[in-house]
Amino acid sequence: MTATHRPLDGRAYFITGAGHGIGRATALHLASLGATIGVNDLRENFVEESLAMLREQGGTAIGVTRDVSTRDGMRSAVQEFAAATGRLDGLVNNAAWVRYQGLADIAPETVTRMLHIGFEAVIWGMQAAAEAMTGPGSIVNVASAAGLRSTPNSIVYSGIKAGVMGMTRAAAVDLGGRGIRVNAIAPSATPTEGTMRNRDAARDAHRVAQTPLGRLGTVDDMARAITFLLSDESLYITGQVLSVDGGIGTSFL
Ligand SMILES: NC(=O)c1ccc[n+]([C@@H]2O[C@H](COP(=O)([O-])OP(=O)(O)OC[C@H]3O[C@@H](n4cnc5c(N)ncnc54)[C@H](O)[C@@H]3O)[C@@H](O)[C@H]2O)c1
Q1: Which ligand 1 atom is nearest residue 98's CA?
Q2: Choice from 149, 192, 215 to test ligand 1 binding pocket (greatest atom count within 8 A of CB)
Q3: Ligand 1 close to Cβ of residue 85 (< 6 A)
Q4: In CATH, what number is assigned to the domain containing residue 81?
Q5: Which residue has a Cα nearest atom 36 of ligand 1?
C-alpha cells in the first residue's frame, strides 16, 4: 500500500467493468486509500487480473464475475458484494461495450447490446445500489465527452451517454432525500484496452493540439475524479456531470 493517509478506510465500493481501463484504475486508486472494492467484470480472467494487481498493492477486494447488463445480473452482483462486506457506500457504473458505426451501417444487434450495458445497466445499477445502501452513499455514472460533443460515427454512443447524463440528474433528485448522491464524469479520449481497436494516431494528435492541458486523459485522471465524487470531499455535490477532459470541451484551440 503506497498511501499513508487512508481516508476511505472501512468504505465499500462496487465498480462495474473493473477488469480493464478506467474501472480497474479506479479500483486501484480507491483501494490505495483504504476502501474495499467489488471488482466486477463480464470476463473472469479480467477480474482475476485486477484482483492480483489490487492484492499486490495491499488492497482489499472481492471479485464478482457477472454480466451486469441485466437487472438480475446487476442486482445479484451488488447484493453479493454488499452481503460480503456488510455495507455499500458507493457504486461506479462504468462497464461499457462500444461500437462506432455510420448511420447507414447501424445494426439492431449493436444498438441492443450497447443499450443494455451502456444505458439499462446504469438504471439497474442505481436501483440495486439504492436498495443495498442503508445510509448515505454516492453513485458515479461514467458518461463521456461524446454525450456533449460528438465525433464521427457515434450516434448510438453519443445518444446513450447523453441519456446517462439525464438519468444522473433525475436520480439525484429522487435519491437526495436519502443522502445518496448521484453524479457523472464525462471523460475525453483516454487510451484503454477497450479503445485500442479505435485508436487513430492522427486523430489523437489533433485532439492533443486542441486540449489546453496538451495531452490525452489517462485512466488515473479518471480514477481521481471518480474518487472525488465518491468521497466526502464532494458531500454537497449531486446531479452534476464533471468533464474530465483537459479543457478540450471548452476551448477554441
Ligand atoms: N476510454 C475512453 O476514451 C473513454 C472516454 C469516454 C468515456 N469512456 C467510458 O468509460 C467507461 C470505461 O471505458 P474503458 O475505456 O475503460 O473501457 P474498457 O473496454 O477498457 O473496459 C470496460 C470493461 O467493461 C467490461 N464489460 C463489458 N460489458 C460488460 C457486462 N455486460 N458486464 C460486466 N462487465 C462488462 C469489459 O469486459 C471491460 O473489461 C465506459 O463507460 C466508457 O464508455 C471511456
Answers
A1: 43
A2: 192
A3: no
A4: 3.40.50.720
A5: 17
Residues 6+ apart with CB under 8 A from 199: 191
- Tell me the backbone φ, ψ of residue 235, rounded to 5 degrees: -55, -25
Positions annotated as catalytic residues are 157
Q: Kindly state whether residue 101 falls inside one of the protein's structural domains.
A: yes
Which atom of ligand 1 is found nearest the CA of 189?
3
Judge whether 230 lies within some domain.
yes
Per-residue pLDDT tens listing for the chain (253 residues): 454 679 999 999 999 999 999 999 999 999 999 999 999 999 999 999 999 999 999 999 999 999 999 999 999 999 999 999 999 999 999 999 999 999 999 999 999 999 999 999 999 999 999 999 999 999 999 999 999 999 899 999 999 999 999 999 999 999 999 999 999 999 999 999 888 888 889 999 999 999 999 999 999 999 999 999 999 999 999 999 999 999 999 998 8
Residue 217: give the domain boundaries: 12-244
97 lines ligand 1 (CB under 6 A): yes
Q: How many domains would you assign to the chain? A: 1
Q: Is 41 in the pocket of ligand 1 (CB under 6 A)?
A: yes
Does some domain include residue 55?
yes
The angle formed by the CA atoms of residues 94, 165 and 63, to the nearest 5 degrees, is 15
Cell of 165: 447524463
Q: What global pTM score does this model have? A: 0.97
With contact defined as beta carbons under 8 Å apart, do 48 and 55 qualify? no
